[in-house]
Prior knowledge:
Helix 4 (about 80-90) crosses helix 9 (about 210-225). The protein has nine helices and seven strands; from the N terminus they run H-H-E-E-H-H-E-H-H-E-H-E-E-E-H-H. It has one domain: Uracil-DNA glycosylase-like domain (Uracil-DNA Glycosylase, subunit E, 3-Layer(aba) Sandwich). It has helices at about 10-15, 20-30, 70, 80-90, 130-135, 135-140, 155-170, 200-205, 210-225; strands at about 50, 55-60, 110-115, 150-155, 170-175, 185, 190-195. By secondary structure, it is of the alpha/beta class. Residues about 1-5 have low confidence and may be disordered. Strands 1-3-2-4-7-6-5 form a seven-stranded mixed beta sheet, with helices on both faces.
Amino acid sequence: MKPDPASAPRALLGCRRCPRLVAHREEVARSKRRAYAGEAYWGRPVPGFGDPAARVLLVGLAPGAHGSNRTGRMFTGDASGDFLYPALYRLGFASQPDATSRDDGLRLRDLFITAAVRCVPPGNRPTAAELSRCRSWLARDLALPALKVVLALGRIAHAAYLDLLREQGVPLVKAQRPFAHGAEHRFAGGPLLLDSFHVSRQNTNTGRLTCAMFDAILSRARILAGLPPAPGHRRRPAR
């Protein structure tokens, strides 16, 4: 489903709850990166997007300074998206492997993408207070009616989901470890939590997270969500 900024709640698009994040996102949008000097940056909170009937919700950390903060769509226009979307395509969650802008024709199937924080934080490090203020927006995206699995990319996304469940009074039933790549965490009600290393360049360039590893996580998410095996998309050699 194509992301439509007009469909996002006005309160989100106009959110200014976190003065530090507001100042940073707007300064980045003004100063820009030289490669994008001719582009108009989004420079606002980035809404979640995807299939409203999704059974899998992917939770990232926050918008990238010159990725989502520029394009206005999650994981679009930066190195993280260059890794993520081809994998989503291979595993049947995305209609195409490329994500360059909000109007590039990309559609998601059985998947919705959101983030723990909706504005780009300095150094990719939101504060605890900023995460808390943004929690209501995460709760809104978690209200998908068919949701079965939450896929957390990284420790911060993992913790953001657990903090929201604690706030809602949902007890943890079974967890392998606090956070571990491939760990599954079950609850007495609510979607299962599946962990993955983040798709950041720091992880993918160093081999901490490979295409094969992430494909396995997405395959597991499909199984846990009760989805059929991925269709026969092009496979990329593991790296």
